[in-house]
Design goal:
The structure is a homodimer.
Chain A (H helix, E strand, L loop, with lengths): L5 E7 L3 H11 L9 E3 L4 E8 L2 E8 L6 H7 L4 E9 L2 H10 L11 E2 L5 E5 L9 E5 L5
Parallel strand pairs in A: 1-4, 5-8
Antiparallel strand pairs in A: 1-5, 2-3, 3-4, 6-7, 7-8
Chain lengths: 140, 140
């Protein structure tokens, strides 16, 4: 396994609309995609492009959203996860499990915001950082 | 002002050596730079390369290190800041101050880990995310 591109940094927020204003008006981000819902993950997301990567704004969607717990501890929002691309998501998952890492959902990949399979490694195994691994998107 | 490349994600850790093992052995990072001290900032740092960006591992250096406070809340470590490049750090600082943002150290830039001037925007103004802005390094 070899980590590839830093695909995006996930940032939890109580309001995507408010966060868009920060990235647009304070930092001058110019390419901000249309927000969309991922109901099966309990989140609404919005990608903000920078030249070499993206910020993924994440807002809770629905009462059971896993982001509510994050915002209960950090009401203003904050850094939620870091996502790297890997060439083979199943090989990466199997290697992590063999090394004793805790992969969320028992390691079963699901389709992420970019339409490709993703897995999450528990932060307890990665120095307190929630790591998302995603299959390389087609356009690379 | 227009944010440029996501230069790095800053990750606080109680031990750079332990974190290097995670990124090397679990995630397969292959280009890990030599750690070095930044005594005037109270940190020891280590850059881990991915194809399009870097992870900056940050360990407290000295009793007054600002990272001790972070680790007191998150003993395993965690995501500390996100750093974007800007073409003109002074213009960026002036624009942020004019818009009412709180820039740390009164907006006075200092030389960061890449040898170029950096400023930090207070997380209270940026949705709970500590944002570092750095002048574009020479090699870009």
């Amino acid at each position: 396994m070899k980590i590839g591109r830093l695909n995006h940094v996930g940032v939890a927020t109580p309001s995507i609309e408010d966060s868009i204003r920060l990235y647009r008006d304070f930092l001058g981000a110019t390419k901000i995609h249309e927000p969309f819902d991922l109901p099966e993950q309990g989140v609404r997301v919005c990608f903000v492009d920078v030249p070499n990567s993206q910020i993924e704004l994440i807002e809770p969607l629905g009462a059971d959203s896993p982001v509510h717990g994050f915002l209960a501890k950090s009401p203003k929002g904050g850094q939620h996860h870091v996502c790297f691309e890997v060439p083979d998501i199943i090989a990466a998952r199997d290697e992590l499990l063999a090394k004793g890492a805790t992969v969320l959902r028992g390691g079963e990949p699901r389709i992420g915001a970019h339409g490709v399979p993703v897995i999450f490694v528990h932060p307890k195994d990665m120095g307190g950082v929630l790591i998302e691994l995603m299959a390389e998107p087609e356009h690379h």
